[in-house]
Amino acid sequence: MEFNSKKLERTSRLVYSTISLAVCFFLILLSNKIIDDLDTATVRPEVENFINQRVIDALTAKKDALSNEIEVLRDKNTAIENTIAAAQQNYENEKQSFENWIKTRKTLGSPGKDKEVVDRAKRLDEFYKVEQDWRSQLNARGLVIEQKTKQQAANQVLIDAETQRAEERYQGELTRFEVKVLLIRLLFVGPILALGIFFFVRYRKHKFWPLFLGFALFSLYAFFFGLVPYLPSYGGYIRYTVGIALSVGLGYYAIKKIRSYIESKQEELKTSTQERAKNVQLEVAEKALENHFCPSCGKDFIIKKWEVPAKVNENDALRLVTDFCRHCGLGLFANCHNCGNKNFAHLPFCSSCGAKPVR
Question: In the beta sheet, which residues pair with residue 331?
Answer without folding.
Answer: 324
